[in-house]
Amino acid sequence: MSEGMVAEAMARFSDQQLNRLFEAILVNDVAEDHVTLPETIPASFTDDVVRDCFDLSHELWARQVDRRALAALVDRLVLSADLDSRERVSFKHIRAKFKHMRFACVLYTTRHQSPILFKSMTTLMGHVQDAFRNGHSLKTRLYALALRIMIISPYWLTMERELSRMKLETGPAFERYLREQINALSDSLRADRMTAHPFHALRKIISRQVSFFDDYRTIFPDDRSDAVARYLSDLNGRMGRMHDDLVLKHAKGEQDYRKYQFPLDIALREKLSGLVRQYPL
After folding, report:
1. Is 280 helix (H, G, I), strand (E, B) or coil?
2. 200: which of 12, 168, 182, 207 is 20 to 30 A away, CA to CA?
3. If we measure between CA atoms, which residue out of 219, 186, 229 comes closest to residue 46?
């Protein structure tokens, strides 16, 4: 295996670590008004930290996503266009592990992109979930059928190969990437008003940051990284609810998603500005 390339997941991490990471993922959009940032935010990372964080995310996906279980859920959706409460939770959890792995590809690899098949499948899972949640039977069956095709062995094996061959960033390059993301956030906050699309781009920055700190605090647990992760989770939850509201209003015809301009909530703006001020740039 050449330097910087990622091997197939090889159980470098314990089940306890994987479970702890997934517990963090499940609450990475929970709003907590009282959380504050620590005096210093970790911002110096070695090549090994980047590798460890990617491998942890990879193992969570490779070891805890059961392809047969996913196929059974999708088959159910093709036939009945719905899932019972237990099955909905199972689908949600599988999708959460896909999303976390997609964030890992964007965060830690030199291209800062997810492989096309993996990205497409993760996106398709979101379309399926939205469709059955909203009771759209035809859309559910069509999306589920497309997803079922992607679960068959040739596509799945191709996804595994794509993930195993990704080249990772160095520690200094990863640090630069994180700073660039915060600088982009800072630039956006200069505007008094914005539309939903740039707001969604801001939320992605926060989602990627919380994803990294969930990886980081799983491997290197301490109070400081926990505090940063909880602060980011609070931001992620607030912004997620705001974006859901924007999407809903567009669907109802109350306002145009791409054209309607709105001011950021004052409390949200202050919390985002606090992150920018505290971040070591």
Report:
1. coil
2. 168
3. 219
